[in-house]
Each structure stands twice: as C-alpha cells, then as structure tokens.
Amino acid sequence: MKKVSKYLMLVLIAFIAIACNKQDPIDLRLTPNDYLSDKHYDKLTVELLYVEGHAPNAQAVDNLEAFLNERLNKPKGIYFIERSIPATGNHSFSISDIEDIEKAERTQYRNKRNLAAFIFYTDAEYAGNEGDSKTLGVQYGPSSMALFEPTIDEYSGGLGQVSEEKLQSAVLIHEFCHVLGLVNNGTKMQQDHEDYNNPYHCDNEDCLMYYASNTGDMLGILIQGERPELDQQCIDDLRANGGK
Questions:
Q1: How far apart are CA 56 and CA 81, in angstroms?
Q2: Are 106 and 118 in contact (CB under 8 A)?
Q3: Alpha carbon separation from 218 to 11, 16, 31, 196, 241 (Å, rounded)
Q4: Reported pTM
C-alpha cells in the first residue's frame, strides 16, 4: 500500500514547473506551427519508446491522442508507434543521457509531409531531482519529450494518490503543449497570460499549463477524478498559430 505525505504530494503534483526546463533545441528548423497546422505537414507519427517493464499507460496514451486530434490540423491522421528496449542499467537520467538514447533508438523522423515526435519512458528517475522536488517529465527539444515512469508510478495508484492514468495523462499532455509552443514558448500569446515568475507557464491556476508548486488545487482536482484542461487563453494561442 503506497503512502505519501500531503506536503510531498503537493510538490510532486507541481510537475508543471519542476519538470519543464527549457533545453537547447535539437532541430532549430521545427516550429510549433509545424505541429499545429497542415501547412508543411498533414500527418503526425508519435514514437513511444519505453524500457521493458515501464510501458505507457494505455488510457493515458489514448487521452494524448484525443487531445492531439482535437487541437492539431493533421488531416492525414495522427499515429502512434510503441516499442520497447531492454533495461538501461541507469540509476538516473540526465538530459544528455536521454538524448544519447534518442540518437541510438529513435526511428521516426519527419519525411515529406509526415511529421514525427518522440517520447521516451525511462526506467530511472531524473538526475536533477533535489530533495522532495521530483521531476515527472521534460520537453528537451522541439520534437522530444521524456517521462520518468518510476517516479510517476511511485506517486500514483496508491491509497490517497491520484490514478496512474490521470497523472500520466497530465504529464504527457502538458509536455506536448510545450512542443506546441505554450506558454510564450514559440507560440505567440494573444493576450498576456504567462506566469513570469515561472516562465513558459500559464498564470491561470485552473489551467493545465499552470505552475502549481505552492497550491493544493491541482492535487484536489486530480484526486476528484478530473484532469486539468487548457484554459481559453492557451487554446486561443494554439488556434492563432495554426491549431484547432
């Protein structure tokens, strides 16, 4: 039976700012508009690479797919490819470690009108964790994200905890929204709503893109079985940059 203190859970649910360090892009030619619009790419393939024993939650992947279909203009479809690799032997992962695995294992790249994204599910925690501040996911390039599955598993699914589906869905969609340029991260704001104390995040505490390290609102919403959604300002930004 899993147990976690209220304080620690609040810190963990605040994955939004903890987990979203802005990294140097791998490919400067890709932009959020490439994902949102069909101007250059009308199809998207999302490659989900995971370490054996740390597979993505199936419903969370379905939730991400539904979100992408709702917000992206990809008339030729959005497709997911899942595959596993053996245990890495890593005790933790730095961004450099993750990039090395991507370079060695990624198979899906943009090709003509087909765009690609890469998500890696690790088998160890983030190397940059400090104390009770646990990173659940990172977007480290214009098409690349990682989820620290053991940390998500440790703090979801137990008594008094959020479900794995809800927590993993929130992390997946949040990190993909950074690929889409939110907030003020490549997609221009239609109205000023960036939390300047926590860059690239929304100042609306009810929005999925809010930095929630000092509030229990996010925890309460997830425990009640509801998943935070984008607010209207974030949706307006995506639509203005080619999204739905």
A1: 12
A2: yes
A3: 10, 10, 29, 19, 28
A4: 0.86
Q: Please give the CATH topology (third level) of the domain spanning 6-239.
A: Collagenase (Catalytic Domain) (3.40.390)
Contact 179, 22 (CB under 8 A): no
Amino acid at 10: L
The CA distance from 215 to 11, in Å, is 9
Cα–Cα distances (Å) from 95 to 20, 128, 138, in that order, read 12, 9, 9
pLDDT in tens, 57-104: 999 999 999 999 999 999 999 999 999 999 999 999 999 999 999 999
Domain ranges in the chain are 6-239
